[in-house]
């Protein structure tokens, strides 16, 4: 296992992060995982043995049950790992049991700490935007948690680039703790964040933490044009995140050829591709079975040739959008060069 720094913190996290969304089985999460303590504990043990030191969960995953299971599985090893959780989504029927208000964050951080059986979170992330709460209120609350020692670093999930920059600007103006990471959907079948979010994160030294790197199971190799439904598969029962499936099948075709050369699985190739992308710090993997986790872990050993990377990038390339097709590479800024307007 290799390790990379989380943004500009100097904190080292493993290239793979063990996601705990499959732990617990309340509500929609019964479809996603529904793993009990014993099964989850074995996966955590395997992850630790492989050198994974980074674990990601959220209060909304089975209503704190994921946090509870992860906390018990880690036990006294908790001090040796990096634990991340999140806050944003509705947790109670109370009118104020949702959002990024000081009220909700302060209530939920205490419940997350109790569930995880810890007195601090290494990384606390907002799980999305809250259009009704001023960003200043959210950020000042997170800053208070850092000052109190309940949270060591803060990050965000699922914001636009402009929202993230606004948050960073507010924090800097007030001398508050700044976001150190950006947890976003990113897969070879979903590269939209490369338009704005990746350049912003690299410019601001934010660690990129891709979630759903296998596109909700679509990139495991189980799905083909001939096999669009797989019994018992998460994607069959929970068709998320949205992807262009026709394009994804083309991508899978290329990944399958490359996987065969590396004596690997399609899933492993999909994960390894992300580990080759600029700005990516740690890829969040989830598993319901030990065999899935064991296969995912082997992704760190794959090294692509330049030709293989080009094939993977070409087949999955985004269609250019404005203003990117207009701006392009500003070659006319170099001495002796000419731009299209000079023709």
Topology:
Layout: E1 3-5, E2 12-14, E3 16-19, H1 29-32, H2 37-49, E4 54-56, H3 65-74, E5 82-87, H4 102-116, E6 121-126, H5 135-148, E7 151-157, H6 161-174, E8 179-185, H7 197-203, E9 207-211, H8 234-237, H9 245-261, H10 266-275, E10 283-285, H11 290-297, H12 306-316, H13 324-327
Parallel strand pairs: 3-4, 3-10, 4-5, 5-6, 6-7, 7-8, 8-9
Antiparallel strand pairs: 1-2
Question: Notable features of this structure?
Answer:
8-stranded parallel sheet; two-stranded antiparallel ribbon; 343 residues; alpha/beta; TIM Barrel
Question: What does this molecule look like?
Answer:
This protein has 343 residues and is α/β, with parallel strands linked by helices. It has a single domain, classed as NADP-dependent oxidoreductase domain (TIM Barrel, Alpha-Beta Barrel), CATH 3.20.20.100. Strands 9-8-7-6-5-4-3-10 form an 8-stranded parallel beta sheet. A two-stranded antiparallel ribbon has the order 1-2. The N and C termini lie far apart (52 Å).
Q: Summary?
A:
By secondary structure, this protein is of the alpha/beta class. It is built from 13 helices and ten strands.
Query: What strand line-up does the widest sheet have?
Result: 9-8-7-6-5-4-3-10
Mean residue pLDDT: 93
Strand percentage lies at: 5-15%
Order of helices and strands: EEEHHEHEHEHEHEHEHHHEHHH
Helix content: 25-40%
Give the beta-strand count.
10
Name of the CATH homologous superfamily: NADP-dependent oxidoreductase domain
For the biggest sheet, the summary is: 8 strands, parallel
Which structural class do the helices and strands define?
A: alpha/beta
- Look at the structure and give the CATH class: Alpha Beta
> Count of helical segments?
13
């Amino acid at each position: 296992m290799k390790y990379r720094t989380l943004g500009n913190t100097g904190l080292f996290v493993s290239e793979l992060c063990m996601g705990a969304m499959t732990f617990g089985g309340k509500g929609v999460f019964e479809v996603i995982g529904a793993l009990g303590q014993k099964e989850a504990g074995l996966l955590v043990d395997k992850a630790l043995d492989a050198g994974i030191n980074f674990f990601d969960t959220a209060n909304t995953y089975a209503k704190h049950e994921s946090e509870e299971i992860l906390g018990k599985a880690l036990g006294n090893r908790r001090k040796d790992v990096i634990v991340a959780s999140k806050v944003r989504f509705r947790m109670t029927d109370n009118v104020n049991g949702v959002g990024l208000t000081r009220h909700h964050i302060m209530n939920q951080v205490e419940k997350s700490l109790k569930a995880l059986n810890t007195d601090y979170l290494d990384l606390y992330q907002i799980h999305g935007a809250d259009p009704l709460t001023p960003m200043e209120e959210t950020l000042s609350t997170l800053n208070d948690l850092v000052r109190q020692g309940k949270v060591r670093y803060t990050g965000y999930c699922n914001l636009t680039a402009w929202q993230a920059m606004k948050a960073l600007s507010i924090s800097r103006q007030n001398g508050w703790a700044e976001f150190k990471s950006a947890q976003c959907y990113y897969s070879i079948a979903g590269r939209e964040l490369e338009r704005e979010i990746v350049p912003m994160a690299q410019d601001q030294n934010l660690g990129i933490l891709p979630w759903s790197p296998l596109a909700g199971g679509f990139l495991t190799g189980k799905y083909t044009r001939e096999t669009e439904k797989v019994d018992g598969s998460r994607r069959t029962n929970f068709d998320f995140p949205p992807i262009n499936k026709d394009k994804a099948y083309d991508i899978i075709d290329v990944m399958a050829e490359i996987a065969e050369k590396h004596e690997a699985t399609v899933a492993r190739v999909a994960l390894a591709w992300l580990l080759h992308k600029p700005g990516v710090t740690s890829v969040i993997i989830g598993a319901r079975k030990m065999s899935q986790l064991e296969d995912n872990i082997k992704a760190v050993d794959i090294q692509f040739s330049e030709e293989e990377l080009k094939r993977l990038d070409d087949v999955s390339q985004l269609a250019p959008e404005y203003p990117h097709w207009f701006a392009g590479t500003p070659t006319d800024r170099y001495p002796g060069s000419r731009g299209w307007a000079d023709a």
